[in-house]
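A student in our group prepared the protein record below, which I am reviewing. I have pasted the whole thing underneath without changing anything:
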Amino acid sequence: MATREVYGSLDSPDTLKVLACLFEHHLDFVFVPIDLDAGEHLKKPFLSMSPFGQVPVLEEGDFHQFESRAIIRSLAHGYGKKLGGQVLVEWDSKKQAIVANWIDVEDHHFEPPALQLLHELGTKVKKGLVPDEKVVGEAEAKLSRVLDIYEARLAKFKFLAGKYTIADLLHLPNLHSLMGISLAKKLIESRPHVNAWCSEILARPAWAQVLAMKEQSQI
């Protein structure tokens, strides 16, 4: 059987999403680190697999796939019924359409302001730089509106698509990081249903495996 390899960076939220999905499905893989600071993702060997120079890339034999959400959809559909792991998609087309809706919400509405807050209040602060208060205010407002919608949804359902799916999984890295930022943590904890959902999915064993892998790499 061909070796399954993941090319990525443990500092990349998109890489961590794919790793969480692999762990959820109990799939063996070899992790191949890509040094983003050294620009490895912009050099020819990697660009032949990922033409836009973005991590991660999944390699299975002679098959290469880039774009984290595409990889996760593929893994969930390909292995959800074959192995003993969690089934993270729906097989009914209408139910899967709901999953797809919330995947798009995470992509287009949740992640952009989340990454802005993490950059301004996380990355910049660690580097000793001053956050741009205007950017912080705008990102906070946008994320607050998204979380209000999540709160209404999660008041009716335990998870975004009803059961735990890849739509929830995709939030893991950024939610984990947001909980380490005081302002963002307050946005989450002030919404009881969002807070309960956040606690539930961050406690999943697959995510604990991702964090352990990240911690081990720093030793």
